[in-house]
Design brief:
Order of helices and strands: HEHHEEHHHHHH
Number of strands: 3
Radius of gyration: 19 Å
CATH class of the largest domain: Mainly Alpha
Number of domains: 2
CATH architecture of the largest domain: Up-down Bundle
CATH superfamily of the largest domain: GntR ligand-binding domain-like
Number of helices: 9
Shape: globular
Strand order of the largest sheet: 1-3-2
Length: about 220
């Protein structure tokens, strides 16, 4: 029997620091020394240093002169650029998915995500709604089968996660978002590639504009 491969310490450090940044446990502009991070994670400084270099390359942290790091902020302008990229790439994914078609299992997965969005929204459980919404987007891109597109979207999706969490309870009840997802799935099921792409483009553009508007109006941008 093949032994399960162990996850390297640098990768463990990378994943845990990244998780804390995305979940805003490490807030924007927080500065920490390598030793502080190492103590926090229960690791030596070497894997932490390697993890910080990787996170720096992804634009999440700035490596500081004395071997520490600062969590980089996201401005409203950053979010405009990120949503422009997500809109273009995810719309292309929707078109590819509709062109190639989905298996019954894949289609069920998309529908189940939207069903979960409806259920959690009715229960006023916005955190669970957000997770179901993210799952829909991740599945949509995954089903495109384009590995490079998937990699790019996942990177920028991560970068948008912090801002989405900050604005989750400030936005209007996201009924329209659920309806948008239903339209995309229906177009995919019908094999209407151009419609699937346009529906998803409209959805992403509207979501991006609303998020940026909230960041500016509520002055949350100062937290970034």
């Amino acid at each position: 029997m093949k032994k399960q491969e162990k996850i390297s310490l640098p990768h463990q450090a990378y994943m845990e620091i990244k998780r804390r940044i995305l979940d805003n446990e490490l807030s924007p502009n927080v500065i920490m020394l390598e030793k502080e991070l190492a103590d926090l994670l229960g690791m030596s400084r070497t894997p932490v240093r390697e993890a910080l270099i990787r996170l720096s390359n992804e634009g999440m942290v700035e490596v500081r002169p004395r071997h520490g790091m600062r969590v980089l902020p996201l401005s409203a302008d950053d979010m405009i650029e990120i949503y422009q990229i997500l809109t273009a790439l995810e719309s292309q994914a929707a078109e590819l998915v509709a062109e190639k078609g989905l298996t019954e299992e894949q289609l069920n997965e998309l529908n189940q995500s939207v069903d979960e969005m409806d259920k959690t929204l009715e229960a006023e459980d916005l955190e669970s709604w957000s997770k179901a919404d993210e799952r829909f987007h991740i599945l949509l891109v995954k089903f495109s089968g384009n590995k490079r597109l998937i990699s790019l979207v996942n990177n920028y999706f991560d970068q948008s996660h912090r801002a989405r969490l900050f604005t989750l309870r400030l936005r209007p009840k996201p009924v329209n978002s659920n309806n948008d997802h239903r339209k995309v799935v229906a177009a995919i099921e019908a094999g209407e590639a151009k419609k699937a792409a346009q529906y998803h483009r409209d959805h992403r553009e509207n979501s991006g504009k609303m998020l940026v508007k909230l960041l500016k109006e509520t002055n949350i941008v100062n937290l970034y």
